[in-house]
Amino acid sequence: GETLGAGFLHKEKGEDFLDRATDHYALVYVIRGKGRYCESNGKTHQLEEGMIFQRFPGVTHSNYIDSEQDWLEGFIALGNHIYQALKTMGVIDFSTVVYTPRVTDEQRMDIIKKFYQLALAVTEIDEKNILRFLAEELETLQNILQANHSSDIFDTYFSLVKNSPELRYSLRDF
């Protein structure tokens, strides 16, 4: 099957992910805490609140939680087939592993709300609404990734999200 996922993870200080590779893509948004992301080539990126890092399928890396305060992250996960299609279309930038999106505090809260809406969808997704959910997840992913390049796109997206009704979709592995 193919993985679809979204949600929140609370973690404690220490090694989080040591010299491992996943079989899926994940975009991770640091909501609270500090840490480090270490690429297999030795390059290290500091992580802190408001930053995003990407886990690419088959790419070995490590990340550590340094913070004495709680770590909280929101994430979107996509299976390797979906990831490969998005990479081919240029939606996912493989060269940018860690970055801080250019967003206002209000937009930051909207990102967290969107992760929450997607996370609620996990238990309700079925064959009737899987494409609708995937479209929502992909739209969220694209707009977060594009925030690294243009705040205008984010402004437009978040005004739409802010004025839309609560979404009731689900998320799980297929």
Structural class: alpha+beta
Bin the strand percentage: 25-35%
* β-strand number: 9
Helix content: 25-40%
Oligomer: single chain
Mean pLDDT: 83
- What Rg, in angstroms, do the CA atoms define? 15 Å
Order of helices and strands: EEEEEEEEHEHHH
Poorly predicted residue ranges: 150-154, 165-174
Strand order of the largest sheet: 1-8-3-6-9
Overall geometric form? globular
How far from one another are the termini? 5 Å
**Number of helices in the DSSP assignment:** 4
How is the main sheet built?
5 strands, antiparallel
Structural description of this entry:
With 174 residues, the protein is of the alpha+beta class. The chain is built from 4 helices and 9 strands. The chain has a 5-stranded antiparallel beta sheet with strand order 1-8-3-6-9. The chain has a 4-stranded antiparallel beta sheet with strand order 2-7-4-5, with no helix packed on it. Helix 2 packs across helix 4. The longest helix is centred in the C-terminal third of the chain and has 17 residues. The radius of gyration is 15 Å and the shape is globular.
